[in-house]
Write a structure and sequence with these properties.
With 99 residues, the protein is mostly beta strands. It has no helices and 6 strands. It is globular and about 35 Å long. The two termini are 25 Å apart.
Amino acid sequence: MDIPPAREIGTQPVDIETPSGIVHILATKATRGTGRRKNFISIEGYVSSPVSTADQCYFSFRGQRGGGAFSRVSPERDGTYRVVFETIISDPEFWTGIP
């Protein structure tokens, strides 16, 4: 499944392929980079499976595969994990409607 466009992050899960399988991030916040890093995105949210910051992970958008990584993973008391996934997406359609 494709990652949703930036304007829809937070309205549906974000699917990320990890070495151990697909995880679904329930996003709470997405932050776009600025200046020369304007195609950088940081997605904060929760996953129900453990993930590692050391692993290369993948997503797809409009049939194109991209790479990224979890930069933060914190276990929560309810058994979920608070995460931050970071990547670069240069496809202008991903950013439609986002200043």
